[in-house]
Amino acid sequence: MATSFDLDLDGDTLHEECGVFGILGHPDASALTALGLHALQHRGQEAAGIVSFDGRQFHSERQLGLVGDHFTNPMTLARVPGNMAMGHVRYSTTGETILRNVQPLFAELEVGGIAIAHNGNLTNGLTLRRRLIAQGAICQSTSDTEVVLHLIARSQRASSSDRFVDALGAIEGAYAMVAMTRTKLIGARDPNGIRPLVLGELDGKPIFASETCALDIIGAKFIRDVENGEVVVCEIQADGTITVESYKPFPPRPERMCLFEYVYFARPDSMVAGRSVYAARKAMGYNLAREAPVEADVVVPVPDGGTPAAIGYAQASGIPFELGIIRNHYVGRTFIEPTQSIRAFGVKLKHSANRAEIEGKRVVLVDDSIVRGTTSVKIVQMIRDAGAREVHIRVASPMIFHSDYYGIDTPDPENLLANQHPDLASMCRFIGADSLQFLSIDGLYEAVGGEKRNPKAPQFTDHYFTGDYPTSLTDLNGRAKNEPKKISLLKEAG
Ligand SMILES: O=P(O)(O)OC[C@H]1O[C@H](OP(=O)(O)OP(=O)(O)O)[C@H](O)[C@@H]1O
Ligand SMILES: NC(=O)CC[C@H](N)C(=O)O
């Protein structure tokens, strides 16, 4: 099927997220990888891929669509044999949703084959790409991640892991990355640790995964988080023994995990940086009830994202919690669908009012975030249509004013609801609610980390709320006004 994807960089807006998984030395490596990716499906629903190594050859299976669409088929798994495998679920942040951008990306290098899978987004990816192409590189994809392969290829170091470290040294932005060579599985996090990555173990075999829920699904043990700026190299020897070594090759920087992992992205049963995502979300709701109380009859979550915060709000306020909105579980996460029209359509498909719990009541609707406002506008109308007497919106995170360049699907600043209204009252009128309140930044910090935001050295990255970006934004700042925006000449089938 021919498509007419326009690889215009502006049209090619930022989205999020991705999930990565890798396991070394296990006879069921690709089946375990498929299960791990299935648990990470919420992080990326556009495409999935697995690369394996069978001791002789690498094998790659990459598909558009969900993990379950392809990797439940034994024939598909049989095409990725071997005792080492790694995989990726993608939500594109740079480069369209086309097969050649699906990860893991693989390349044949002087030092042998190497596969990489990346969660995050590079803020100097385009700058590096242009430089590499000018030097003669032949790019096969439009993904930012591909530059890492080119940098590895060009490194003068002897070992593949040293070359990988060299490549990481040149990139900026956010990455939780897994790489695989003939004998090594490598996990790395960017110096600020913006994206999560954990090290686990099953039957003594090391595993890297974006979230602990991917370990739980296969009964693997959580060992520890890969630290910010850390590179962990697991190597299988000829006799099958595995060594695990840790390196901190870059100048140290403070850890600044992305707060949105706690607000929205990570699965509530995951532990991110030692904190239960569920407990953090509940605490957000608790703090929200203290900061923004309201007289009401019922607390209703906007499912699924708003549910733990609504439980916290209900517990703190003493207002009964009810499932006043029912979510259709066969519709994906609207926030991470590619176009505004699909988002609007998705919200309608996704939620319906549970009239019996709403009619005649004063409703507090709790959601985790408001980005464009699409969800809130529709849901308030839906709750009113179901007979609610009053509708009060409480949002378990602050207003979003700034775009994200580390992978989150935030629109350009002018399309963020918070930038379209002069004040809260105007925003509330637009949404059609009786009242609207957001959690404060300190309320959010306290819910996640137990302490207020330290303005001199923020404990997390919170740039979407504050504009305080933890890395340089080389591509964004270096873009000349009349620069051609296309990054590929090829229009291709998806
Ligand atoms: O203001 P908006 O642009 O509408 O975006 C914000 C909404 O998007 C997310 O929900 P989503 O439907 O993605 O996922 P969920 O079911 O996981 O909560 C989030 O939980 C908000 O409800
Ligand atoms: N969401 C992600 O982490 C995506 C990784 C990478 N930037 C890509 O677009 O493929």
From TrEMBL:
Pfam families listed in its UniProt record: GATase_6 (PF13522), Pribosyltran (PF00156)
Domain Glutamine amidotransferase type-2, first and last residues per copy: 18-237
Enzyme Commission number: 2.4.2.14
CDD domains documented for this protein: GPATase_N, PRTases_typeI
GO biological process, one term: 'de novo' IMP biosynthetic process
The keyword Transferase is annotated on this UniProt entry: yes
InterPro entries: GATase_2_dom, Ntn_hydrolases_N, PRTase-like, PRTase_dom, PurF, PurF_N
GO molecular function terms attached to this record: amidophosphoribosyltransferase activity
Pathway: Purine metabolism; IMP biosynthesis via de novo pathway; N(1)-(5-phospho-D-ribosyl)glycinamide from 5-phospho-alpha-D-ribose 1-diphosphate: step 1/2
Keywords (A to Z) from UniProt: Glutamine amidotransferase, Glycosyltransferase, Purine biosynthesis, Transferase
PROSITE patterns membership: GATASE_TYPE_2
Active site: 18
Top EC category: transferase
Catalytic activity: 5-phospho-beta-D-ribosylamine + L-glutamate + diphosphate = 5-phospho-alpha-D-ribose 1-diphosphate + L-glutamine + H2O
Keyword Transferase: yes
Record family assignment: In the C-terminal section; belongs to the purine/pyrimidine phosphoribosyltransferase family.
Biological function: Catalyzes the formation of phosphoribosylamine from phosphoribosylpyrophosphate (PRPP) and glutamine.
HAMAP family the UniProt entry points to: PurF
NCBIfam families for this protein: purF
Protein name, as recorded: Amidophosphoribosyltransferase
Lineage of producing organism: Bacteria, Pseudomonadati, Pseudomonadota, Alphaproteobacteria, Hyphomicrobiales
Gene: purF
